[in-house]
Design goal:
Blueprint: E1 20-21, E2 24-26, H1 40-49, E3 63-73, H2 87-96, E4 101-112, H3 126-137, E5 147-151, E6 156-158, E7 161-163, E8 166-169, H4 171-174, E9 179-182, H5 190-200, E10 222-224, E11 227-229, E12 248-250, E13 260-261, H6 291-303, H7 308-311, H8 315-318, E14 322-328, E15 339-341, E16 346-350, E17 360-362, E18 368-370, E19 380-385, H9 398-409, H10 417-423, H11 433-444, E20 457-461, H12 462-465, H13 468-475, E21 494-495, E22 502-504, E23 516-517, E24 522-525, E25 539-543, E26 577-586, E27 593-600, E28 605-612, E29 624-627, E30 633-639, E31 651-660, E32 671-673, E33 681-683, E34 694-705, H14 718-721, E35 724-726, E36 734-740, E37 744-751, E38 757-765, E39 768-774, E40 783-791, E41 794-802
Parallel strand pairs: 3-4, 3-5, 5-9, 14-25, 22-23
Antiparallel strand pairs: 1-2, 2-12, 6-7, 8-9, 10-11, 12-13, 14-15, 14-18, 16-17, 16-19, 19-24, 20-25, 21-22, 26-31, 26-34, 27-30, 27-32, 27-33, 28-31, 29-30, 35-36, 36-39, 37-38, 37-40, 40-41
Helix pairs in contact: 2-5, 9-11
Length: 803
């Protein structure tokens, strides 16, 4: 192929002092490129030499183009780019080239040499020749298959003049020596980056050949000297880029407005340039390439031999350096309706033989994790984000129960499939009242995580959601969203491009062939082109139970300051005295849901019994949890299952029957509201937080002695035996702590409400503190039970509740 001379290198508008004219910007005619753009005849001659008839249909993913950054620093390592993150340039570039190219970082190299800090960028200069020789000596063959981007860090010299730099050497003339220079002024101006990459892929300026630009289109050719010319032969040679001239004013505040030009074309027709085209000089408005410009870049990239190196780049240059994990709260009602990165997620990347030595990566503040945590010989990869990287209660509270209940009742169905997956707390593939029970048990501390899967997070691979057929199943017909539309991501089916079989929401779904789940992992093959797309390595993270998108995703969980009871009892208590406390709400705003946690001095007090308050509507024992008895914490919540709020003012939410284990001078000093146990939260029927509700703690029954004498009858000396039965309420087993002044036989029994013995234990225990346990009570129905403690003929009875 005949070589042509084509050097696209520009001193961009951003490097000059351009005056504002009547709210717009004037582009001076003095702005020049170092070398003229390629002529129209040369460009079309090159395209005509390429294979004819090539048709490039739109594809599902863009072609991946690798970039190698060279940071030209001073010999001491200093540079104006000192804190520049090259990866930050990739995302905006990919937006400008969306659907055509997707750029990824293959490598970065620092070159510390004062010679290149302020260098002559002319292609025939000694500085440039030395730079090429320096790069060759680095022996980095992979960079030859990349777009080389030079971060100059200092102004460069062009034609003897010092300029901040935005400058390109194209592949058509310079081949392996082609590259892009970006200077300190333009490091965050990604229009400049995209403009220069456009030159790299063969595009001229829209104002090319300024003396031969005519305002016409392909259907209205002009006659010049008796010769007929179309838009293919004048200006920049593209028919979908209006004739451009630099002497125009425009407003960056209204980029859709046509710039006002002071001159006309040679035929006297006013110019009407397009300020949105990236190959123009209309900075601040540029955001796109025209369709014909995209077609030329696509043609040269796929068919011209000088672009073969980057077209056939090695896999290590094509696989993205990082995947992204983010949360999607789009269409979720509330202040967090956005897409945001999730930090501190451990991600394991391994091959089929698990040869990654257990190396994990954590996502950073931008949700990114490294895709190559260790050397793997196989091209097969399995990517597994951590399922329990934050606490189960992160973002999960009674407000989520209200939202799920509203979905089940029908007035407010979910409009986001990620919400639906978050609501499926028991991982059944459905949303039912059992999910509310599952979430409630986690909030109350009855279960440490979401049973039975014990997963705190779920992940939907973007490889799935960016596949059209799956996307339509997962989101429904998003163009026809209407009231009553029911999304159902649980029935979406994904055809795995790497493994060749269908994947379903639940891997345990019966009667389905190849029923691998599409949740929580991806299996990839780095030899296949699909892995060149960052989406193949990326996920949407879903916090189980957090349907209103309030979980902290920045790597740490913040806590509000603890509240305080508005009223506390201030009474002394003697050892073994029993008293009843009532927890009351104060405030006139109707409440549909509430929760809070209380911390008490467990070394001084023992919970003997929990009782409902004024009515079951205010509280039921199912909504109470006594967690970690030895640490003295309990949690309580309630929500209106009918969705209606009620006035709680001066109503007792629940009562606590307590026993003093040691002398207490002031009961009130031993109780406090504690957000670390469970955050205090009151909600109205609309789901809005109500901050005008207070909590009171009062003694509702007089103090009495445990095991006191009544009518001379013999009772168990609790002062001697110090019995504690827990947990209250119990779920599957019961523990009994007791003290024996000497070795004795003890008989412990559990009876149901009809007096039938459910289980018993008879055993000789040594002197001192002992613990006995009765197991296998999980199958017993919920309700009231009784226990008896018998030691040498002395008996003690008590009541206990099973959830």
């Amino acid at each position: 192929m005949k070589k042509h001379l084509f050097l696209a290198r520009c001193i961009l508008w951003a490097t000059l002092s351009l005056p504002l004219i009547t709210g717009g910007r004037l582009l001076s005619q003095n702005v020049e490129c170092g070398t003229p753009d390629i002529s129209i005849s040369q460009l079309h001659a090159i395209l005509e030499q390429l294979p004819q008839g090539a048709s490039f249909n739109p594809q599902s993913s863009p072609w991946t183009v690798p970039i190698w950054f060279y940071h030209l620093r001073r010999s001491d390592g200093s540079s104006a780019y000192q804190n520049f993150d090259p990866e930050s340039a990739i995302s905006p570039l990919n937006q400008y080239f969306g659907g055509l190219f997707e750029f990824s970082i293959c490598g970065t190299t620092n070159i510390d040499d004062d010679q290149f800090a302020v260098m002559d960028l002319s292609a025939n200069s000694p500085d440039f020749a030395d730079l090429v020789a320096t790069i060759d000596l680095l022996n980095q063959p992979a960079s030859e298959s990349c777009v080389r981007v030079f971060l100059t860090g200092e102004p460069g010299i062009i034609a003897g003049t010092l300029f901040p730099v935005g400058y390109a050497l194209d592949r058509l003339q310079f081949n392996e020596n082609a590259g892009i220079f970006v200077g300190i002024t333009d490091q965050d101006n990604f229009e400049v980056w995209a403009h220069e990459i456009g030159h790299y892929f063969g595009l001229p300026h829209t104002f090319a050949d300024p003396t031969n630009q005519y305002v016409h289109d392909v259907n209205t050719p002009v006659i010049i000297g008796g010769v007929q010319y179309s838009c293919f032969q004048t200006g920049d040679g593209f028919c979908d880029t209006p004739a451009d001239i630099i002497d125009c004013t425009y407003s960056q505040l209204n980029c859709s407005a046509t710039p006002v030009c002071s001159t006309t074309d040679p035929l006297g027709i006013p110019y009407a340039p397009d300020p949105t085209l990236l190959m123009s000089y209309y900075g601040g408005c540029r955001n796109r390439f025209s369709n014909e410009q995209r077609q030329v870049m696509r043609t040269l990239y796929l068919l011209h031999p000088n672009y073969a190196a980057i077209l056939n780049a090695p896999n290590e240059c094509l696989i993205p350096n990082f995947g992204i994990i983010e949360r999607n709260c789009v269409d979720v009602q509330g202040p967090a309706a956005d897409v945001s990165p999730i930090a501190a997620v451990p991600v394991e990347v391994r091959d089929v033989n698990n040869a990654c030595n257990g190396q994990n990566n954590l996502t950073d503040a931008e949700g990114k994790y490294v895709t190559e945590p260790c050397l793997l010989t196989s091209p097969l990869r399995k990517v597994l984000p951590g399922l329990n990287h934050s606490t189960p209660l992160n973002g999960v509270d009674v407000a989520d129960l209200v939202v799920i209940n509203a979905h089940l009742l029908g007035p407010f169905p979910f409009q986001n499939p990620f919400q639906m997956i978050a609501a499926d707390a028991n991982n059944s593939g459905t949303i039912t009242s059992f999910d509310i029970v599952t979430i409630r048990r986690v909030i109350l501390g009855a279960d440490p995580n979401f049973m039975p899967e014990q997963k705190s997070w779920r992940y939907v691979p973007k490889l799935c959601t960016e596949t059209q057929s799956f996307h339509e199943q997962f989101w429904g017909d998003v163009d026809l969203i209407m009231p009553g539309l029911q999304l159902n991501p649980f029935i979406a089916v994904f055809t795995d491009p790497f493994q060749g079989f269908t994947r379903h929401y639940k891997s345990a779904t019966p009667n389905l062939p190849n029923n691998d789940s599409w949740m929580d992992h991806v299996s990839l093959n780095t030899d296949e082109a699909a892995t060149h797309n960052q989406a193949a390595w990326s996920f949407t993270g879903i916090k189980v139970g957090d349907v209103n998108c309030t979980a902290d995703v920045d790597g740490f969980q913040s806590e509000d300051p603890d509240g305080a009871f508005t009223t506390l009892p201030h009474l002394p208590v003697l050892p073994n005295q029993i008293f009843t406390l009532q927890v009351k709400a104060v405030g006139s705003t109707p409440i549909a849901a509430w929760q809070f946690g209380i911390d008490f001095a467990h070394e001084a007090l023992q919970v003997m019994e929990v009782q409902p308050g004024n009515s079951n509507e205010v509280f039921s024992l199912d909504n109470f949890g006594l967690t970690r008895l030895s640490e003295g914490e309990f949690r309580a919540l309630n929500f209106a299952e009918n969705g209606l709020a009620q006035n709680l003012n001066n109503k007792t939410l629940f009562k606590l029957k307590m026993k003093a284990l040691q002398p207490i001078s002031d009961i009130g000093q031993h109780f406090q509201l504690k957000n670390s146990v469970l955050p205090e939260l009151f909600l109205s029927a609309s789901g809005a937080e109500v901050e005008t509700i207070g909590l009171q703690l009062e003694v509702s029954a007089g103090l009495g002695m445990a095991g006191g004498n009544t009518g001379g009858a013999a009772h168990l000396n609790t002062d001697a035996y110090q019995i504690a039965v827990y947990p209250v309420p119990f779920t599957s087993d019961i523990s009994i702590d007791f003290f024996l002044p000497e070795e004795k036989q003890v008989h412990f029994s559990i009876f149901d409400a009809y007096g039938r013995t459910i289980t018993e234990l008879r055993k000789v225990f040594p002197k001192g503190v002992n613990t006995a346990q009765l197991d296998d009570l999980a199958s017993c129905p919920s309700g009231i039970y009784w226990y008896s403690f018998v030691a040498e003929g002395q008996k003690h009875f008590g009541r206990i509740v099973k959830k």
